[in-house]
Specification:
Elements (H helix, E strand, L loop, with lengths): L1 E3 L9 E7 L6 E2 L4 E6 L3 E6 L4 E6 L6 E3 L3 E7 L23 E5 L47 H10 L17 H9 L24 H16 L2 E9 L1 H18 L5 H15 L5 E4 L2 E4 L5 E3 L1 E3 L2 E3 L2 E2 L7 H17 L12 E4 L19 E5 L3 E9 L2 E17 L5 H16 L9
Parallel strand pairs: 13-17, 17-18
Antiparallel strand pairs: 1-8, 2-4, 2-7, 3-6, 4-5, 5-9, 6-8, 10-20, 11-12, 13-16, 14-15, 18-20, 19-20
Length: 438
């Protein structure tokens, strides 16, 4: 039977073969992990669809493979224990194996401050037939880089002269690399800019070969910035009341709910409710149309050992702060232990990133494609602020926080972005030490 790379979501089109866990000739049981793969959402182990013997590995380690492509062959057994007909596919009625997820790569700042989110569209595999051997992301045997955005002429010319196309700044439409760009790079000693030879690696430099994950992050950064016309807006928020409420309720909250009370679930609650009243912010651009999302599923950046990950808090609008805190604690634990499920990373409609935890006071994040916007909450800093009371100006010390919105200008105009930011600002500033938050 043929073993195909399973589809893990409608937005995931391909994956990089990381490491084969079984070798040809090995006996495998149904659901035994066969191979580790890296997608634009997660690292995961693909389980065996049936019991039998692995006889041939088609997709080699490091290759980029389209979802649904054949990656290996095996002699399988049917329910009676007899070998199945070679080349037959597993029955569609079989129950799926539980997905075991490793480290999420939303990272790049795959995540929010660098843009989430991985996408391998710049390394699309070229295949001549469903059973043909996939081409690696780094190119075919001749060393050319057959990547989306590079024409055959450009790829061949670059290969002939030993030019790395990823080092060339394209001057064509949408930043595409043209034949003229490659020829210019040849004249300049392999770079697209005159005089760049002085910037070639020296003996003192350290050269790092990017991992498949880092390459996917790089590709996604280019995709997000090239396909989405970014615009930015930021305002400051007086969070003195929220700080006091948390200090006053923290001990009782944690004793009652069994999770830590941070500023994140409080802010998330306000943001989620603001998205309901500002639906354009909770949307995406698809095939020339604006799709307003029915659910508010907020992707939240989490620092994990393998990098920044961005699990999703589903149906966040209308959810209590206690339940949001529990959901966040759950996904954070799973993210850092490498036990996230596909549900944890799918369906995000908007991204919230607490860059303030890193000391940042202002940031212009890259949007998590294909979402329409991403909001960063920055560090809370005590500052002197002018307050007007009864017509009298006075200077007082307040806890202040900047919130910064990056938005897709195809969907959202400045007025709509400002309306959303003001909604978030009003919601946070309405919190006082006496508020009865749920």
């Amino acid at each position: 039977m043929n073993i195909e790379l399973p589809h893990v979501g409608e937005s995931v089109t391909e994956a990089v073969i990381g490491k084969w866990l079984k070798s040809p000739g090995d006996r495998v049981e149904k659901y035994d992990p066969l191979v580790e793969v890296v997608t634009d959402k997660v690292n995961m182990e693909v389980p065996s669809p049936a019991s039998g013997t692995l006889i041939n590995i088609i997709a080699k380690e490091g290759e980029t493979v389209l979802m649904g492509a054949v990656i290996a062959e095996m002699d399988s057994e049917d329910a009676s224990g007899e070998p199945a007909t070679p080349g037959s596919n597993v029955e569609s009625t079989q129950s799926p194996a539980p997905n075991r997820i490793g480290t999420l790569v939303q990272g790049s700042n795959v995540g929010p401050t660098g843009g989430e989110f991985l996408d391998t569209s710049l390394g699309v595999t070229e295949t001549s037939s469903p059973t043909s051997t996939p081409t690696t992301a780094s190119g075919a045997a001749n060393g050319s880089r057959k990547q989306k955005g590079f024409s055959p002429v450009v790829s061949r010319l670059a290969a002939q002269h030993g030019i790395d196309l990823l080092t060339i700044t394209g001057t064509g439409l949408g930043g595409r690399v043209t034949k003229k760009d490659v020829l210019a790079a040849v004249e300049n000693g392999g770079s697209s800019a005159p005089g760049s030879a002085a910037h070639r690696p020296s003996e003192e430099d350290t050269i790092i070969e990017p991992s498949p994950i880092r390459k996917m992050i790089a590709d996604h950064m280019v995709k997000s910035m090239s396909e989405i016309p970014h615009a930015w807006s930021a305002i400051e928020v007086d969070v003195t009341g929220m700080v006091k409420w948390r200090a006053q309720n923290r001990q009782e909250f944690e004793a009652t709910n069994g999770v830590k009370l941070t500023y994140l679930p409080i802010t998330l609650s306000v943001v989620a409710n603001s998205l309901v009243s500002n639906p354009r912010i909770n949307s995406s651009w698809q095939d020339g149309k604006i799709v307003l999302k029915g659910d508010v599923n907020v992707s939240v950046a989490v620092a994990a050992e393998g990098g920044l990950v961005v699990p999703v808090v589903h149906k966040a609008a209308g959810t209590s702060i206690a339940d949001l805190a529990k959901k966040i604690a759950g996904v954070v634990t799973r993210a850092r232990s490498g036990s996230m499920s596909l549900e944890d990373v799918q369906g995000g409609t908007f991204t919230l990133n607490n860059t303030g935890a890193l000391g940042s006071v202002w940031g212009g994040a890259i949007i998590n494609h294909p979402q329409a916007a991403i909001l960063t909450t920055e560090a809370i800093v005590k500052r002197p602020v002018v307050v007007v009371a009864n017509g009298i100006d006075s200077v007082v010390i307040r806890s202040m926080m900047n919130i910064c919105l990056s938005f897709d200008h195809r969907i959202i105009d400045g007025a709509e972005a400002s309306e959303f930011l003001q909604s978030v600002k009003s919601g946070i500033e309405a919190i006082t030490a006496q508020s009865e938050l749920k």
